[in-house]
Amino acid sequence: GCTSNEPQTEDDGGDDAAQAAPAGANDEPGETVTIGFSAPAADHGWMGAITTAAQEEADRFEDIDLQVAEGTNDVNVQISQVEQFINDGVDAIVVLPFDGAALTEVATQAMQEGIPVVNVDREFSTPEAARVTVLGDNYGMGRSAGEYICERLGDQGDAVIAEIAGIDSLPLTQDRSQGFSDALAECDLEVSNRVDADFTVQGGEEAASNLLQAAPEIDAIWNHDDDQGVGVLSAIENAGRDEFFLVGGAGSANMMREIESGDSVVEATVIYPATQAADGIRLARLLAQEKAMSDLVEVEVPRMVQLYAPVVTADNVDQYLPTAFES
Amino acid sequence: MSESPSTAAEAPATTGQQTVSGSGEPKFRLGLGHSLGLVLALVALLVVGVTTSGERFVGLDNIMVILRQAAVIGVVSIGVTFVITAGGIDLSVGSVLGLSTVWASTVATQTMAEDVHWIVLVACALAVGTVCGLVNGFLVAYGGVVSFIATLAMLVAARGLAEIISDRQTQIVSVQGFLDVFRGNLLGVPVLVWVFVIVAVAGWFLLARTTFGRRTIAVGGNPEAARLAGIKVRRHTVWVFGISGLCAGIGAVLMLARTTAGTSTHGYLLELDAIAAVVIGGTLLAGGRGSIVGTVLGVLIFAVLQNLFTQNNLDSSVQAVTRGAIIVLAVILQRRFSSARRT
Amino acid sequence: MSESPSTAAEAPATTGQQTVSGSGEPKFRLGLGHSLGLVLALVALLVVGVTTSGERFVGLDNIMVILRQAAVIGVVSIGVTFVITAGGIDLSVGSVLGLSTVWASTVATQTMAEDVHWIVLVACALAVGTVCGLVNGFLVAYGGVVSFIATLAMLVAARGLAEIISDRQTQIVSVQGFLDVFRGNLLGVPVLVWVFVIVAVAGWFLLARTTFGRRTIAVGGNPEAARLAGIKVRRHTVWVFGISGLCAGIGAVLMLARTTAGTSTHGYLLELDAIAAVVIGGTLLAGGRGSIVGTVLGVLIFAVLQNLFTQNNLDSSVQAVTRGAIIVLAVILQRRFSSARRT
Amino acid sequence: MADDATATPLLRMTGIVKTFPGARALDGVDLEIRPGEVHCLLGQNGAGKSTLIKVLAGAHQPDEGEIRWEGEPVTIGSTMAALDLGIATMYQELDVVDGLSVAENIFLGHELAAGGVLRRRVSHSRARELLAQLGHSEIRPGREVGTLSAAGKQVVSMARALSRDTRLIVMDEPSAVLDPEEVENLFRVVRTLSAQGVAVVYISHRMDEIRQIGDRITVLKDGRTVATGLDVAETPTPELISLMTGRDVATDFGGASSGPGTEEPALEVTDLAVEGVFDGVSLTVRPGEVVGLAGLVGAGRSEILETIYGARRATSGTVRVHGRTLRRGSVSDAVDAGIGFAPEERKSQGLLLDEPVYRNITLSTFARFARGGLLAESAERRAAREQAEALDLQPPDVGRAVRTLSGGNQQKAMLARWLVHGCDVLLLDEPTRGVDVGARAEIYRLIRRLTESGTALLLVSSEIDEVLGLADRVLVIADGHVVHTGTTADIDEHRVLDLVMEGARA
Ligand SMILES: Nc1ncnc2c1ncn2[C@@H]1O[C@H](COP(=O)(O)OP(=O)(O)OP(=O)(O)O)[C@@H](O)[C@H]1O
Ligand SMILES: Nc1ncnc2c1ncn2[C@@H]1O[C@H](COP(=O)(O)OP(=O)(O)OP(=O)(O)O)[C@@H](O)[C@H]1O
Ligand SMILES: [Mg+2]
Ligand SMILES: [Mg+2]
């Protein structure tokens, strides 16, 4: 299985992004469909992986003609990209909106014109705006990280727990933080130091070096994003600190290798699949070709696919590493 | 060369050809003539569009998509044209736009708008934008803070304030009257586009045909001469920044209509796009020469480019590289054509 | 006022006080004196830091954290100081830095570095940066593209190229020799900080003490006069941009060492921070006057501010608003102090 | 010096043509310079003098024509090439870099350096020598040039020309910003140079200077050589003037003004002072009266005018116009009260160089032409054209950018602004700087016309005869103090100079 998705609803072939040839009845070439894809700018590793994975997935199918719009963080531009897809009469649209609420109207419009929309990662504000929504579980991610820390430190009431968040103004960051503090609250812990980076290596390094300076004694750190985690680790190494353990987020191959090595402060990471958009492309293809999901009892493609957020630790890392994304 | 320091490093080229310009005709007057290179670049892009994507590219539908997209950045860029012509710079427009959308879409404002009239919502956005602009203007004119720094500070502060007000939540606009009007069409053309056209024409008129415009050019061209000629340079500076803020407020209204949402992330990095459009349009970054027509063309070129890329199946990184090359080509083309006209 | 058109809108304030200035000493020469306001702002921030976070704030550890953080942006800003002093602007430094880290950390380069010497990796980063800078310079000097546009195009293109080369993946640096040297300490001070200090001193020397520096100021202050004095303005412009590119390359080396990784997202929006530091430091955005000492102080102020915020666990929105206010205050403070010294 | 007429000339330019878009600036110019001579270049404003010397300096490339240097044909492809030949130029438009120090400006482009590192001590002492040679040892080499007055910048320019090893020095209207004593200084330097065999091309609109210093004369008219190699001693001034202008021009000041009425003063200045610049300035100007400020360069005359106008903030004292006290430091208050001001540095203080002439002329009045904020450009053009004609602006096209006008014509455009404005009190700072004989007479007539219509004029000029000829009363300023006040009838040029010297020494 590719990342994390096997416990959830997902067709078989889609799991295995790492393998070359897809298999299964649904993967047999059908009529060629044009799929419009729009996502934010690849200004951080995970987002870069998203776009790359989507493109690779489309290349895998000769019956997909993927129309990729330039990545943008300007919702105004993103709206016109979707408008243009509608104009061009594409067969399906996959959108990872920069801001879900802001793209709801135009997505609704596409749906009304009969073009199925697959909403990835950041949710629209109304369900009618998308035929399928593929979501990571941000709140669940926070919870998983929190629960892991609870497990390790639950008996230490005065444990110092730090959090290195991503971009604070994004709802997904807020969800993650909420899940994290909710889970911690259940074992009477709380976040004592919190900084936000910006999902970049550089931002992670800066935030972490300041954080380490501000908190001389830490027991655990949760870092929301493994891409910025490269910078975080660099800062930790530089400060020569190892009195704590670190839980990552997103599940990049880099981090998993750290976990595998066993001598790193990184003990675990919570997966947030970067293949969501690739899944979205697949689903869009099915919708456009009016195929159904072969792996579910229900014949139709489901409304909502929420990907699971498992925790990767030294115990199960070999299971996840082969398919993790190189951020 | 005292007037072009900001582009000073590129002066030799200028000296060689531009300052020797013979037709003493003021350049912003020539409107399309001066912008011939830009028009050609635009036409070239359209031709490429038609070749690669078929006639649909210049179909009415697609043109409207382009224009609707251009509307927000266009309105903002027109305000920025004034500031740059007056010799300043405004880095804050993007985040002021964000703040205005947030303020206008708070529950309080929306409730009031529903109780009274949707115009309240519009007025709120415009007021927030204008006030931010005026604050910039005061800092620059009376505080003696260079405009780059003053508006940079405003950029940071307005974004922060927007986050605080919205609690970083995206606020949905539900004032139906507002949505009906601004998301609608008038004579087959989206209201958004009408607003853009009106602001552009008003901006052109203000800059090219009124005493206000003349003062703006004088203040930007040689502030000392303007002052000695009795122009109240400081007060004028405040107004110019006010206009830029007002335009950001109008842009916020359009953004609210287009996205039906207000959020602090609206307008992120918009300032760079706006300044780029203004400068490509032929307004001197050093001040003293401004062209609204050029700005509009600059905005359209960027919007068409965007549209063109979406049509073509290019990898988005390749798109970025291509965009860089095209920007340079467009500018060189423009230089060629405007200097060819002169000699 | 011929020297400040880009800040023209704010001219009246300047005119009132500067042209009547008594001390005729050239300002870039005064070094610390001229930057008194900045030094005071820095001290004030440190005092606030000590009050809110205890003495640890000015402890050696924390100082080193601040300095290491300042190193990357500092090196880049020094390059940008040259471009701005010469009357141009360089928006591309951030993405050129990103491209350099990516190129230097590709498998091919790293393998070669491991086989030969880690210096290959460093040379690669510096070469990529310098070449990008020279391309900017050629476009500006010989292509006649204004620097804002030329470097904006480079910004977009270099970022795209970096994404293509890296396939949008973060490339971990594993050349041990490189990491050992650049992540290490020398006499108790991180090598990163040494590099910053060396570049700063070299930059100061180059700008204030050499023919090259004088010519840079002349080209920025009055390109026509520079040309008439027999200075090859175009060629000089190319070199100045080359320096900026080289500094971005040095920044890339530091970034590689600091993060142990190369990625196309490195340096995102760094250009804005760099330009802000340069301008706060007292270099005229219009060209013709530049201060490396000021730039270094500007960089330090921003770094201390960042550190201060983190130490105090401030919400990032509140940070933003505060930061905006502090920027304006620092500049007004500086104006106060420098004009007080003059009258 | 230049008796050796048969020897190879140092420089010979033949058939030089230079066209600008829309203007044929040079239309076949011949010029021959012999080693060691002082060759004067005469011509009306816009005749092509500056363009010719820019061709010579490598700043412009000629379209046609041949240049021979010591008999060898050469192309001067860049300013560097000219400097390498040994041609140094002092340009008409001050070509200094404000942000650099005096010494740095002097050695710009050929810095005294060891391996690229400036040798500051050496360049300062060398600069000090050069400045001393020019009689200006009071200018410190480390001073920032931006803080110098126009005259100071001219001195720096001169020092720069001298700093090179030259065979030919071209001086484009160097005396325009200098006062008599300065000019004397300059001549001393010129004589030394020509004694050393260095040739000098000297451009000036002041005939008396030509007589004093020149050996031979070339006259340009409309981009063509109309006479060349005239011997200064043998050519009478009226002949030169008619060669230049094609007509006879009488340069008189138009006699005394009609004299002040007995009315209340239009302008009343009491105890005006700006700390550190000047103090205790009191004067009154009645309608129809011309009051002159005489003094050496750097005496603070420009500052007095600027302060009256509100462009500088007075530290004490009052300015009243028709009894109304003006707010300190407020230009708009002054303009509202009816004061006009033509500043001395037209480029930095007066003109929008890339804007058309007419908009420069109406810079202070466009709002008056406008209706309801709407510009009335045709009315502006009309008004501007009228004044342009009155001042004989060349070319008379008011639509071209001011930048493309010759220096003297730019000055006329500045003056025209305040003629269109029509103010009660007019402050003129060096109104005839760089203006040719013909236009100068025009300006004198204009001043008369203004006084007759009741304008009160306050005039600063470095040409003492001009002040004495035009003004009814004169204030002699030395070092920021008024050292003498009286009617012009009671004083002559020598007395003024004496007063100035005493004041400066005191
Ligand atoms: N860059 C230019 N573009 C167009 N025309 C120009 C330019 N420079 C000069 N001219 C024109 O060339 C002619 C000669 O100008 P020039 O400056 O040589 O006159 P001049 O003899 O030096 O006059 P003055 O005594 O006023 O300085 C004028 O008609 C002027 O308008
Ligand atoms: N920007 C400035 N900063 C410092 N000192 C200045 C500045 N401008 C002028 N000064 C000084 O003020 C004094 C008077 O200046 P200025 O040369 O303008 O007098 P002036 O009598 O008007 O001379 P001119 O004949 O050139 O008009 C001089 O000592 C000059 O050096
Ligand atoms: Mg001339
Ligand atoms: Mg003066």
Automatic annotation (TrEMBL), chains B, C:
Membrane spanning residue stretches: 31-50, 71-104, 116-139, 146-166, 186-207, 237-256, 292-310
Span list, region Disordered: 1-22
Pfam families: BPD_transp_2 (PF02653)
Keyword presence, Transferase: no
Chief localization: membrane
Keyword list, A-Z: Cell membrane, Membrane, Transmembrane, Transmembrane helix
Localization: Cell membrane
Skewed-composition ranges (Low complexity): 1-15
Membrane topology: Multi-pass membrane protein
Name of the molecule in the record: ABC transporter permease
Species: Georgenia deserti
TrEMBL record, chain D:
UniProt keyword Nucleotide-binding, yes or no: yes
Residue span, ABC transporter domain: 11-247, 262-504
Signal sequence, renumbered to the chain: none
Keyword set includes Lipid biosynthesis: no
UniProt keyword terms in alphabetical order: ATP-binding, Nucleotide-binding, Repeat, Transport
Molecular function GO labels: ATP binding
Pfam families named among the record's database cross-references: ABC_tran
Name of the protein described by the UniProt record: Sugar ABC transporter ATP-binding protein
